[in-house]
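Let us begin with a simple case.
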Amino acid sequence: MSYLPKGLPAPVPENDGLDQPYWEGTRRGELLVQRCNKCGTFQWGPEWICHKCLGFDLGWHKVSGRGRIYSWERPWHPVHPALKDHGPYVVVLVELPDAGNVRMLGNLLGDPRQEVKIGAEVEAVFEPHDDAKPPFTLVQWKLAFPR
């Protein structure tokens, strides 16, 4: 099941291959975060250089896919023509405790008018789009303990 309306541009890996491991992980149902092999610091979004030690030896680390809401907003106006009849929706900034508290942005699934609390626990949901060219899997978020 897709939560996205048709007509939105498909996310694809960057041409330089920097985020390719992330997208390959999502296809397997795994959430990967970039981590420096020299100093162990996690970072998001992907970069060619470590933000902390400036090293170039970066790898990818599988994380649990569990986090907590750091911030959120509820857009009421469509930011793309394909979203014309799909508002409101909830966008969350999720902090990942098992990845150095890096933060990822995504949609919160469920009732778009639900009450959202800072600090609420969420978990990643992998939404495959196997018919897309190229196929991709989008990471969405859902409350870990819905009321």
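The second case is a distinct protein. As before, the sequence precedes its structure tokens.
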Amino acid sequence: MSEKLNLSFEEAMEKLEEVVEKLEQGDVPLEKAISMFQEGMTLSKLCHDKLKTVEQSMDRILHEDGKVEQTTFQED
């Protein structure tokens, strides 16, 4: 599982999409489906955490004078 934590956002999203696609087909045995669901949740959390980190980085705006302003972008 630790190898999944080293995935890039794009790699994690690709694997998550593969898991979802397989689960949506509905022909996965129950125990395998549970394992895949757990894997999907781990990948989902990884993607969420990476997006949160980027969001926090984006909340800083660099002005022409070199000063950094902390802002918060609101979700609609």
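The chain is about 65% helix and 10% strand. The longest helix spans residues 30-58.
Keep these points in mind for the review questions at the end of the chapter.
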